[in-house]
Amino acid sequence: MWTQIKSWTGFAATLFVLGGAGRASAAPVRPSVLLISIDGLRPDYVLEADKHGLKIPNLRRLRAEGAFATGVRGVLPTLTFPSHATLMTGASPQKHGIYANTPFDPLGKFGLRWNWYFENFKVATLWQAAAKAGLTTANVRWPLSVGAPITWNLPHIYFYGGAEDMKLYRLLSTPGLAAKLEQETRLPFPDTKDDMVGNDERFVDYAAQLLTTKRPGFMTVYLSGLDTVQHETAPLSPEMLAVLERIDTSVGTLRAAAERIAGKRAVICVVSDHGFISADKDFKLRFALRQAGLIDYDKDNNVTAWRASTYLSYGSGSVILNDPKDDASRVKVRETLAALAADPQNGIDEVIEEAEIQKRGGNPNAAFFVTLKPGYRMLGGSTPPLVAAAKPGGAHGFAPTLAEMNAAFFIVGPGIMPGRSLGEIDLRDVAPTLAELMRAKLPDAEGKPLQLGAEPKNRPSARSPGSMRTP
User: Fold this and answer.
1) Dihedral in degrees, nearest 10, Cα atoms 415, 421, 424, 430
2) Tens of pLDDT along 87-117?
3) Distant-in-sequence, close-in-space partners of 238: CB < 8 Å, separation ≥ 6
4) On the CB side of 142, how many CA atoms lie within 13 Å of its CA?
5) 140: closest CA among 206, 83, 198, 193?
6) Burial 312-336 (b: 16+ CB within 10 A, else e)
7) How far is residue 368 from each of residues 354, 372, 413, measured CA to CA in Å?
8) What is the pTM of this model?
9) Which residues lie across from 136 on neighbouring strands?
10) pLDDT (tens digit, 9 = 90+) per residue, 161-190?
11) What is the pLDDT of residues 330-378, one digit of tens each?
12) Contact criterion met (CB below 8 Å) for 42 and 60
């Protein structure tokens, strides 16, 4: 009996009947929320679809039928894992604790490890907030979801090929869920690194089945194929446009499943983590620190000691001191970075120090943070040359003030004004907005709920559509 009651409330119970029909009273309708992340979706891909020659009817329908942002200002750095952590918490990296895609690894010992684990969060997430509000939750591949307290969880972890991956994945997923979805959909799990659009489509089939059979009150789905193709080619390449059109079909599939189950209570929110910029030059910050005598290597090019090391994020990177009280190394790093920035050939846009990093919500462990100009990207190499021409491709991680780094936000559902432009918003506002819709509490959020309905008459908005806080 308790399981049945919990399942019903998790489906966002819409009506409480008190006594007989004559005394029935309806509680305010609580929506069922589906949050879809399309990694690397720039807002102009949808808002200027005609200009780009894109056939994306489902994304365009979201814009027409709901509210949307003209741009979403990201966090420092504009990278996948820190940004998805912000989407889950409404907090900056400084507060939620996810500073890059991978753990800090100055000695190069971690190999293929990424920030997959929920326990790395330092603040509460939407999954927890939804559960406390009485909703069941589901997830398909959202970053940082391994070990998360989610009712039905298919976590995000990379597959590198073969049956051994599935043994691990079954252990990390909700017990029995992976096998059950394979059986119900008759579709085997992908056995390759799962950031390609074809694998996205397979996981969308699983997500649609989860929506249909489990009816979660809050569900997250992550699609990574657009990010992959832009890294390999460039923003707006023919290959990228083709992938986005396939992803648009997946968005339509997920929306149809959500609305088939929840009807008019369905809220569908499509977001992204960052934008993209083309780059064709590689800059090696670690090599510069090695030249300055701040990192020592053996004859096999392995790190043996370090006084300062790098924590890179494509278009930017942190410099972290082994000993924060080592003033001599701090001065040496400052001098090294100043010399690098003075040469325009190195592509450095800005160098900021601890106080400013904190102000912008970045890594609290970083002594320095370096951003690059568009066209450059940071690599982790420690051998010459310092700067080199490279195969053109897409990159992100640049300063969130660049328009090309803007993420996307589209939302449709009950009470949301069709065609409402929110102007430019802050990435930290997404989580508290969804929490408010679910009548959940997210006490650690730094952002504020967005005004999605019509503006109250004779009363100014609490926040103008174009207003922004410093990230």
Assistant:
1) 20
2) 999 999 999 999 999 999 999 988 778 999 9
3) none
4) 33
5) 206
6) bbbbbbbbbbeeeeeeebbebbeeb
7) 6, 13, 43
8) 0.90
9) none
10) 777 888 888 899 999 999 999 999 999 887
11) 999 999 999 999 999 999 999 999 999 999 999 999 999 999 999 999 9
12) no
Mean pLDDT value across the chain: 90
**Among 1-5, 278-282, 283-287, which is the least confidently predicted range?**
1-5
How far is 258 from 209, CA to CA, in rounded Å?
10
Q: What amino acid occupies position 431?
A: A
Amino acid at 319: V
Distance CA 124, CA 131 (A): 11
Instruction: Sort strands 71-73 and 424-426 into parallel, antiparallel or unpaired.
Output: parallel
Q: What is the mean pLDDT of residues 440-449?
A: 97
Give me the residues paired with residue 351 across strands: 370
Contact present, 89 and 445 (Cβ < 8 Å): yes
Label the pairing between strands 67-68 and 409-412. Answer: antiparallel
Distances (CA, A) of 123 to 22, 92, 119, 307, 311: 45, 10, 10, 30, 22
Q: Which of 2, 31, 1 is nearest to 14 (CA)?
A: 31
Residue 428 contacts residue 447 (beta carbons within 8 Å): yes
Q: Which of 296, 217, 173, 248 has its CA nearest to residue 408?
A: 248
Q: Report the alpha-carbon distance of residue 394 to residue 31 in Å, rounded.
A: 37
Give the C-alpha separation, 348 to 367, whole Å: 17
> Can you give the chain as a three-state secondary structure string?
CHHHHHHHHHCCCCCECCCCHHHCECCCCCCEEEEEEECCCCHHHHHCHHHHCCCCHHHHHHHHHCEECCEEECCCCCCHHHHHHHHHHCCCHHHHCCCCCCCCCCCCCCCCCCCCEHHHCCCCCHHHHHHHCCCCEEEECCCCCECCCCCEEECCCCCCCCHHHHHHHHHHCCCCHHHHHHHHHCCCCCCCCCCCHHHHHHHHHHHHHHHHHHCCCEEEEEECHHHHHHHHCCCCCHHHHHHHHHHHHHHHHHHHHHHHHHHHHEEEEEECCCCCEEEEEEECHHHHHHHCCCEEECCCCCEEEECEEEEECCCEEEEEECCCCCHHHHHHHHHHHHHHHHCHHHCEEEEEEHHHHHHCCCCCCCCEEEEECCEEEECCCCCCCCEEEEEEEEECCCCCCCHHHCECEEEECCCCCCCEECCEEEHHHHHHHHHHHCCCCCCCCCCCCCCCCCCCCCCCCCCCCCCCCCC
- Which amino acid does the sequence have at 356? E
**Tokens coding 133:** 């509000």
